[in-house]
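Hi X.,

You mentioned you wanted examples for the new student's onboarding notes, showing what a folding record looks like when two proteins sit in one file. Here is a clean example. The first protein comes first, with its sequence line followed by its structure tokens.
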Amino acid sequence: MNLDKETIKKIRGLIVFTAIILIGLWNYEVVLDGLGFIGRVIFPFVLGGAIAFVLNVPMHFIEEKFFRSKKMKKNKWANKFARPYDFVCTWNHWNRCVCRSAGAGRYGDESWKKYSGVYSASTGVGGKHFSG
């Protein structure tokens, strides 16, 4: 075996990598807690990116169909409010589809209140009546 500088660096790297893996396996609870923390921090950003990606397709369609004509390009008001209007339309449509598929308030019942945090004055936390 030729022990030049490059080979020694590779061997040293393998030893350090093996030591890190062994320490991680011995303390797997700490490693899993750390990965869970990192996942909890990153999750909102991933979710936001996914929602933005999904909503961009209908927003682009609405913008192209309603706000990209020659007449609308000259209108400063239309250019200024095109994206917010597209977002409100898309968000409204998306919310309606998601709420309908989830069955929120579909049959006139008030089961959606159980999950929305909206309670009447006579009920307490979780919709249970106060006694007394």
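Then the second protein repeats the pattern, sequence line and then tokens:
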Amino acid sequence: MIIDVPNGVDTMRLMIHGGPGIGKTTFVSGLKPEDSMPNPVFAGDESGKAGIKKLPATDWETFIKGIDWLLSAQHDRKTLAIDTTDGLEAWANEYVRKLNSWSWAEFGSYSRGEAMVVSQCIRPLLRKLDTLRESKGMRIVLLAHSTKGNVKRADGLDFISQMPVGSKKTNDLLVGWCDVVAYATRKIDVIEKTKRAQKPGPRCLVIDPLSPSFTSKTRYTMTDTSCDLSWTDFVDNIEVK
């Protein structure tokens, strides 16, 4: 049997990670209605800004009920933004811990809790999200906070990089699933003579898989490695293969 694999910006799987207040939520909702991603709905632990549409959720089980509603109901939503993946993983951790009647020490023992979260929560969730893409034509946006982490290399040349907050197993799965992973930050101009950075400038989105400074990837051809932190500018910067 042959199936069609969703392609293009209409059903894109996008992750944006960056510091708090950088503008990840605003990237989805837009400063103005014309800058918004098409018909967005938010889900997750973040309270969100005023005026957005959001699926009510207070834990993993109510979050999944919201996703199931999107799958079964008739609605006009075209973008699902999960805000944030690190908060969502915390919900999943608590769900798995209670399901097994574990203490937090037992959850962390031999990383069994982390492994069970991936197998019983995150993987099934990604299957539901792919079904949303296929059956409802929705794009999925994962929003995450960033943290500095150590990237280990086989040759011993480890380095520090900005990466999404969360466990390695969950982040590896989410990053691998996404079509684009971008880092939200601010442009910084460097004074040529002194090589010192000036005051941080406008907010931007950086997609440069070759940079060791942050987690990033793309399955699309980009016209530039950075763009303004807005959906319209991002779309102008991407070409579907």
